[in-house]
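FORM 12-B: Structure-to-Sequence Request
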């Protein structure tokens, strides 16, 4: 009887020991699997979770199977995103990387890939150096625009207006809304030449090299910040349009000469044209006059010219409207004068309004040294 009792006790402790060992094995492999999962090492995570199952038929086997299924999905998405990146389809790659993040918010590798994809997305970054100086801003023949002297520091300005293809690349990284909920671009307007398909934005093939339109000030501002740039102040825009230190408004030339520089109502057939088709101004900048209006950084104020500071003015601190400049392919000649001022609500979009960016010299030098 005593022997039988001893045998039962021995078997009981043996089962406890074996179960404890299996549980310890299970917990160890589960912990390793979760760590690898959070590190984004999904192949290793699957092996660890499978090893946990082999330890014994413990109560959490179904839970482990869920981990395995999630790991397999993440691994599939990662392989697809890698192939998309290699093929240059960054938008599709980001789409699958975001799917991984939805399953595994702790995957720092995927988060870093999404961030670094910004550097993979290439846009035309050709900029023209504008030597600072003093110039007369305004024109007493236009809208009571009081001529006044302005002094500007050196800066760079985009050689061309931002195109549909470039802005579509930005949308694929940023999305079509800014933090305050405003749209970057109205893709539902018939004048917009960018469309969305399967969560990605594309420029219509025939319009890739035309300036983006139907873009809000918020969208233009977000694009500029995305590239480490900003929108030009009204003074910077006018100074560059006049040829900087050459200070030539080229407003008094004959029709034929103006047509060499600008697309406007008389020669455009009221269509917006590809960038860079006309002659550049003295600084080598294209389409500052005509083709599309361009957003500026400043809030609009009708009286600002009277109050404007002398050095590097940036407009009033707040307002209802933002400045737009340059006229468009739909404009009459007078509206394309580089001193002419116009304005629009920052949330509004127009079928003939786009933008270009500027960059202070210090920012340009810092970005070049990185």
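FORM 12-B RESPONSE
SEQUENCE OUT:
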């Amino acid at each position: 009887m005593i022997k039988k009792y001893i045998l039962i006790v021995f078997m009981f402790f043996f089962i406890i020991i074996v179960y404890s060992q299996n549980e310890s094995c299970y917990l160890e492999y589960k912990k390793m699997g979760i760590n690898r999962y959070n590190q984004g090492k999904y192949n290793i995570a699957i092996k660890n979770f499978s090893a946990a199952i082999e330890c014994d038929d413990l109560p959490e086997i179904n839970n482990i199977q869920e981990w395995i299924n999630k790991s397999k999905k993440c691994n599939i998405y990662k392989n697809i995103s890698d192939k998309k990146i290699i093929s240059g389809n960054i938008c599709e790659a980001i789409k699958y990387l975001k799917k991984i993040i939805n399953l595994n918010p702790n995957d720092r590798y995927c988060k870093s890939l999404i961030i670094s994809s910004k550097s993979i997305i290439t846009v035309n970054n050709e900029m023209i150096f504008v030597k600072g100086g003093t110039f007369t801003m305004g024109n007493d023949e236009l809208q009571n625009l009081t001529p006044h002297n302005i002094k500007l520091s050196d800066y760079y300005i985009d050689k061309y207006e931002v195109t549909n293809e470039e802005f579509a690349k930005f949308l694929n990284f940023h999305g079509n809304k800014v933090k305050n909920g405003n749209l970057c671009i109205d893709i539902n307007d018939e004048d917009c030449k960018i469309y969305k398909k399967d969560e990605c934005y594309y420029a219509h093939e025939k319009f890739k090299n035309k300036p983006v339109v139907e873009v809000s000030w918020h969208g233009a501002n977000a694009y500029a910040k995305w590239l480490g740039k900003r929108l030009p102040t009204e003074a910077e825009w006018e100074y560059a349009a006049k040829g900087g230190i050459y200070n030539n408004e080229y407003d008094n030339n004959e029709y034929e000469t103006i047509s060499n520089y600008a697309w406007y109502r008389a020669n455009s057939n009221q269509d917006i044209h590809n960038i860079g088709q006309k002659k550049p101004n003295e600084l080598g900048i294209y389409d500052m006059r005509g083709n599309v209006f361009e957003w500026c950084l400043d809030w609009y104020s009708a009286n600002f010219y009277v109050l404007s500071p002398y050095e590097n003015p940036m407009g009033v601190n707040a307002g209802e409207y933002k400045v737009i400049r340059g006229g468009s392919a739909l404009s009459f000649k007078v509206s394309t004068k580089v001193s002419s001022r116009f304005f629009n609500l920052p949330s509004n979009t127009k079928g003939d309004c786009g933008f270009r960016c500027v960059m202070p010299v210090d920012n340009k030098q810092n970005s070049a040294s990185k």
